[in-house]
Amino acid sequence: MAKKIMIIDDDIDLVEAMRIILESAGYEVIDAQEGAKGIEILKKEKPDLLILDVMMGTQDEGFHVAYQLRSDEETRDLPIIMVTAVGTQTGYNFDLSRDESFLPVNEFIEKPVNPHALIEAVKRNLSLV
User: Fold this and answer.
1) Residue 21 pLDDT greater than 90, yes or no
2) pLDDT tens by residue, 55-72
3) Which fold has domain 4-126?
4) What residue ranges do the domains of the chain occupy?
């Protein structure tokens, strides 16, 4: 059975591009365009991994989604890959080795997304479950 990946991102074109990449690699993909709806779908569908944007309805909506998932017993161990342009937009670059204490995700990938890097990050993070 194919691993299920959820994408929460308000950029539908990027969602569809990632869907093509992931489905061609054999993954099942579900999506939502905003945080609250994404959490609702995620709890129902129980994906194996989440790809999450930071800047959606607000500049930091993705962080709030990730914190909420990490504080819930049911979803706290879900691997989360944050795919974001926050570094480009704000000039701040996250580094998990430096910022790990407050970052609620397993990995960051800066937009635009390299298809090979996306697949490698997914494989790496799915090996955690």
Assistant:
1) yes
2) 888 888 888 999 999 999
3) Rossmann fold (3.40.50)
4) 4-126
